[in-house]
UniProtKB/TrEMBL annotation:
GO terms for molecular function: ADP binding. Residues 38-196 form the NB-ARC domain. It comes from Athelia psychrophila. The lineage of its organism: Eukaryota, Fungi, Dikarya, Basidiomycota, Agaricomycotina. InterPro entries: NB-ARC, P-loop_NTPase. Pfam families: NB-ARC. This is NB-ARC domain-containing protein.
Amino acid sequence: MHSSAPFNDAPIDRISPCFMGREEDMHAISSAVEFCDEDTPSRYAIWGMPGLGKSQLALSYANASFKAGRHTHVIWIPATTLEKVNQGLVKILDLTQHMDRNNSDQGARLTAARLCLERSGQDLKWLIILDDVTPATLQFLREHLPRQNGHGSILITTRTLDVAKAVTSVAGQQHPVHELKALSTEQSAKLLFKSAGIQSSAAADLKSAQKLVKQIGCLPLAVEQAGSYMRRSGLTGAGQLETLYDHGGLEEVIHGNFFPEYKELIGKLRLLAGTMAYPLTKRNQC
C-alpha cells in the first residue's frame, strides 16, 4: 500500500445503539478471520435471511477489530450490484493514495487494487467487508478479490448458503461459513424493551413482550422496529404491548413499506401463528 496510515472505511455510525452484542457470533468471526495463513487471506461468510442483523454484526466486528488494532485498514464494500462492487474495489486506490487511482482504464484500476492488497507488508493488516453479496456479483468478486497475502482478511455477508459457500471457495479450499440465526426469546424481549426505552422487570410485561417477539419471529430488525414504534407512541404497559399484536397496532403506521422478503416472511408467520400481520419499516441494513 502507498499509504500506511490506518483507516476504518466501514460506516460505523450505522451501528444501532440497541445492538445486542452477539458475543458468540463475534467470537466465531474473530476465530476465523484473524487466523493468519502465510500465503492466502482468510475468508469467512455470514449468511441468513434479511432482518437478522448481518450488516450490524459485520459493522460491530469492524469497529471492535479496528479499535483493538487487529486490523489496521478496514475497507467496506456494498456488494449487491456490479456497479457498487466496481466502485468499492477501486476505492481502495483512493483510500491508499495509490499512484494508479486516476487511471482511466477501469480494468487496470481493478488489477492495481488487487495487487495493492496482495503485495502489502506484514505491518498492514487489512480487512475487506463485502456486505450483502448476491448471485449477480459473485463471479466478479471471485475474479477480482485478492488471493495472496496471509495478513489480509475478507468478511462476507449474504442471504443464502449457496452464495456463502461459493464466495469462500478459493483455489480448491473451502473457507468457513456461519449461519446467523434469530435471537432467543429472552434476548428479543430485552431488545424490545431497550429499543422502546422501557425499564421494566414486571412478569406481566415480560410475558407480553415474549409473546410479541415470538409472533414476529424474533428477528432483530422487526423487534427493534416494534420497540421504536412503541417509543414514539408512548406505549409502556403490558396491556398496550398486547394491543400491538392483538389489534394490529403497527399496521396503520408502516403498512406496505418493507422488503418483499419480509412480506413473504410475515405471511408465513401469520399462517403458523394464526395472528394478524406485523409490518416492519423499511431499513437499508439487512
